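Hypothesis: this fold can be encoded by more than one sequence.
Test: take the structure tokens below, design a sequence, compare later.
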């Protein structure tokens, strides 16, 4: 019986970290809207569109064994979600003028629900999660293209 090599184990662990980060992020997102009853804005919904499928994509890449083709499907979703999260963070911080925000109806994209430590907002947490995912996937891509 062949033993998986160390590189395969490390790749599997990196992909598992991606799956864990996405799962925690999706759980927190659902917790905010379902339990704390924070109504998501338009940009939050777009970020969820890119975040939630990643749970299943990463899980498919983990089992029964590490599958490097998952990077091809997950990386575009994480980059798109990250760009929307960056835009949302800049809009929330007031760097982008509020008159060009997409939230013309319903909850404003600059609505302040939570600010941990006085500055960490929900859009900033989303941007951090997507940035971490992009970084891990780029590391995985480089490791598997050798």
């Amino acid at each position: 019986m062949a033993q998986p090599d160390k590189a395969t184990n490390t790749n599997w662990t990196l992909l598992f970290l991606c799956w864990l980060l996405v799962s925690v992020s999706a759980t927190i997102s659902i917790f905010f809207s379902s339990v704390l009853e924070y109504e998501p804005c338009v940009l939050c919904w777009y970020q969820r569109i890119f975040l939630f499928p990643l749970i299943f994509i990463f899980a498919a890449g983990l089992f029964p064994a590490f599958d490097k083709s998952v990077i091809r499907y997950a990386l575009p979703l994480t980059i798109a979600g990250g760009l929307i999260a960056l835009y949302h963070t800049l809009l929330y911080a007031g760097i982008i003028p509020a008159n060009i925000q997409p939230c013309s109806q319903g909850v404003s994209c600059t609505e302040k629900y939570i600010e941990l430590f006085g500055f960490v907002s929900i859009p900033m947490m989303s941007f951090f999660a997507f940035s971490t995912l992009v970084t891990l996937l780029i590391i995985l891509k480089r490791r598997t293209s050798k």
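The helical segments are 6-35, 42-62, 70-93, 122-144. The chain has a mean pLDDT of 89.
Hypothesis status: open.
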